[in-house]
Design goal:
20 strands, about 375 residues, TIM Barrel, 8-stranded parallel β-sheet, 4-stranded antiparallel β-sheet, alpha/beta
């Protein structure tokens, strides 16, 4: 029996677990101060605390270490995310992630698939972001089949720019293969956005970021994605990637049901403030507030806060309740990984017990359970 307070009502609840699955939820007296929620689900994790999935040197042990780090941050399901790189580097990284799942039962449970963010992003400066221009290339079903072979069929989500030649046919094919197609790092026209959604694209990756700094006020690809009801949207609610009023307006436009949070955290997330030299981004500054930027410029070089920190920031920026913000980090992203993230009988007992921190501070993790087994963190 696992007890805590319901984030929606504040009332005590008790969750009964058998064989790693929730079998019943009932009222409970004396549940204590800790809230109980499904574990967080992060669809976009590039690394954390010096663990890098995109430096060309990833190995299974690094992936296993990242899994345990994510669990201790309240994330019970995540998609390791690989950005644009050479064909060989991507295949090596995919094989390392697959091997980590074979070696480690916990990684196998926590990692349901892989997010390929690229390599078919916009080649243009601005929307390309930190993706290396030398390795940007059009979408290829032959390369997709090589990814699936290297990973053992683990590709779950692909982010691409729909303006690439052949993108619509590619989206249609990968969606038919059971993979979610997302739009991001793009300079597409509204017509190209709508065509991608018609072909089966279902998500906008970190909407409002990965776009040109200057664009027509209307029409443009941001309005098109906000208006397209077939697209859900992920947001980086770290207080740096989107101003509060922008995030609030976008959330209202998409609606809570079609919105979700991602951390998009990189290897320098969680590191002490300072200047670091990186394979992607060059000289990068990490600030005490989690902002990561290219040294001496206003340009971001990745996200520096984990999902557990983004939940209260989202609450503050958009005036959300605790339960609403948690929905954006549990049930809503859970739709992209097989319907996880719900506190209900029949669901895996992936649970997080926490208390809110001081205003603007991350939620304070008390305990984490994966498939009913408590995870012990140092």
């Amino acid at each position: 029996m696992i007890t805590g307070r319901d984030p929606a009502t504040g009332e005590g609840i008790a969750v009964s677990v058998r064989d790693g699955v929730i079998v019943a939820i009932s009222a409970a007296e004396g549940a204590g101060d800790g809230y109980l929620t499904p574990g967080l689900i992060d669809l976009q994790v590039n690394g954390y605390a010096g663990i890098d999935l995109n430096d060309g040197k990833v190995d299974p042990e690094r992936v296993i270490q990242l899994t345990r780090t994510m669990l201790c941050l309240g994330v019970t399901t995540y998609l390791p995310t690989l950005i644009t790189a050479s064909k060989e580097a991507l295949l090596d990284a995919l094989a390392a992630i697959a091997e980590a799942r074979r070696m480690d039962g916990l990684s196998r449970q926590v990692i349901p698939g892989i997010h390929m963010e690229g390599p078919s992003v916009s080649p243009a400066d601005g929307p390309r972001g930190a993706h290396p221009a030398a390795h940007v290339r059009p979408p290829s079903l032959e390369e997709f089949s090589h990814w699936q072979k290297a990973s053992g069929g683990l590709i779950r989500l692909i982010t691409l720019a729909p303006e690439h030649k052949g993108a619509v046919d590619y989206i249609r094919a990968v969606v038919a293969a059971g993979v979610h197609a997302a739009l991001g790092h793009s300079a597409a026209t509204p017509e190209e956005i709508f065509a991608a959604a018609e072909a089966g694209a279902s998500l906008s990756t970190h909407l409002g970021n990965g776009v040109a700094g200057m664009m027509p006020r209307h029409p443009n690809l941001i309005w098109a994605q906000l208006a397209e009801d077939r697209l859900s949207a992920s947001f980086i609610a770290d207080g740096h990637h989107l101003p509060a009023e922008t995030f609030k307006a976008m959330l209202r436009a998409k609606g809570l049901e079609r919105s979700l949070l991602v951390s998009d955290c990189v290897a320098l997330a969680g590191m002490p403030p300072g200047i670091y030299s990186q394979v992607v981004g060059g000289e990068v500054e990490v600030r005490s507030d989690g902002r990561i930027s290219i040294t001496g410029t206003p340009y971001l070089a990745g996200a520096g806060l984990p999902l557990i920190a983004n939940v209260p920031i989202a609450m503050r920026m958009a005036g959300l309740s605790l339960a609403e913000a948690l929905q954006l980090a549990t049930m809503n992203p859970g739709r992209f990984v097989g319907g996880l993230g719900r506190l209900a009988p029949g669901q895996p007992a992936d649970l997080l017990q926490f208390t809110p921190g001081a205003p603007g501070e991350p939620l304070q993790v008390h305990a984490v359970w994966k498939a009913g087994e408590e995870v012990f963190c140092r």
